[in-house]
Structure formats: C-alpha cells, structure tokens
Amino acid sequence: MLSAHRLELVMKGVLWLTASVVLIIPVMMAYDLMINGFSTLSLEFLVSEPRNSGRAGGIGPLIISTGLILFVCLSVVIPLGITCALYLSESVEESSASGKRISLVLDILSGVPSIIFGLFGYVFFAQVLGFGFSILSGGLTLACMALPLFVRLTEQSLRHSPSSYRQAAEALNLTHVGFIFKILLPSSATGIAAATIVATGRALAETAVLIFTAGYVTRQPESLLDSGRALSVHIYDLAMNVAGGTKPAAATAIILVMFLILINGLARYLSKRWLPR
Description:
- This protein is mainly α.
- It folds into 2 domains: 4-40; 44-274, MetI-like fold (Orthogonal Bundle), CATH 1.10.3720.10.
- It is built from 12 helices and 2 strands, in the order H-H-E-E-H-H-H-H-H-H-H-H-H-H.
- Strands 1-2 form a two-stranded antiparallel ribbon.
- It is globular and about 65 Å long.
C-alpha cells in the first residue's frame, strides 16, 4: 500500500495532469480554428449570404437565424424556468418523496440525447401544431431540451441562498412575494446567470434538433415561421458534406464561439446589476 505522503504526491500529479489537459485542449482548439478560419473572416463574411454551398460568400442570414432561434428559446426557458425553480425551492422539500421524484425526472430529462428532442419537436411543433420547419419550431424544441437543466441549476442556486436573508426578511415583516423579488432572486442572480449560460451553450451547440425542426435553408428568415439555418448546422454541413468547406467552417465556428462569449459577458453583467446593493 502507498504511504500517505506518496498518495498525496500521486493525487497532486493527477491534479496537475488534469489541469494541464483542461488548459491545453481549449488552446489547441483555438489555435486550430484561428489557423483555418482567421483568413476567411471579414466584414463581407459577416453580412453576405452563403454562395457555392457555403464555400464562398458569408453567414449573414445564418447569424440572424441563430439569434432568432436563441431568442425564442430563452424567451421560454428563462421565465418558465425561474417560475418552476421558485416553486420547487419554496414549496417542495428537497428531501421529501415528491422532491426526490421531481429531481430524478429533471436529471433524466437533462441527459436525454438531443436527437430524441429533435424527433419530438419535428412531430409535435412542426406537424401537430403546424409550425413546419421554422425558427419557431427550432426555438421551442431547444427550449424543451434546455429547460430541465436550467430549472435544476436555478433551483440549486435558490436553495443555497443564505438562511440569514430569510430571517432578516421575517424580522422586517416582509411578505413572501416581497422576499422573493427583492431579496431571493437578486441574491441568486449569479447562479441564474450561470444557468442561462449553460442553457445557451447547449442550445447554440445543437445540430440534430435544428435539422429536424428549423430546417436547412440559407436564406434570411422574414418571420418566426420561416425556415432558417443555424450556425451550428452550417458548420456541420460544411465540415461533413461540402468539399473544401474546412476554412469557412472554421471561420463560422469562431463567430459561434464569439457569440457564446458575448452572451456570457452580457449575462454576467446583468446579474451584477441585479445584485442587491
């Protein structure tokens, strides 16, 4: 058996190795994207339409489609998710039988493969509700996929709010509704922002869901009922189906990463503005 000192050295070695891998992989990915895609980036690339199956032109309509899909998704996820998380954190004991069952269901739904949600969205939103291949179908399906994870993360953030806040609210004779809106939600803003970022990241990365629901066309959508190709779908198509599509795929991936970084920064900025002063 290893002595305590040697075991500590082994654990430190594993920790440093893991940290090195975690740091090296993003650096390698960024380097690969910059090498293959940076030369393709330009203002024309950001505003023009794709040509020659994406080998030429740009991604202007695709940026608009992605933004609209994400807008529909978050418009459903954030208000509905916060409402559900508030109900669970304020009305359901985490250790109770119903609390454990709800948590289990949310955990299972969070791990369901995206292709299952894609098939559900195609049948329910596109066919049953008649939305067809559209921005609306894609955004609502992404909302169904991201909602369980958002609810779970937001619920945990709300549950871990300091108990002293609740005691102070009771001492000040603050109503329960007042406590929620003036203290609980603002004090949990950072956790809610983190949940939003995670849900956004999962939504932006999806391809299977959007192929089944939002469609494949590259034209600019004129309404939420028009079909539109998301950036992630465009990257997949260029990388897998288009000969010579590596460079525009890498350039599109850079824009997608910048999109996520921008939303990350915006969510953190708004959460700090929401914090109680």
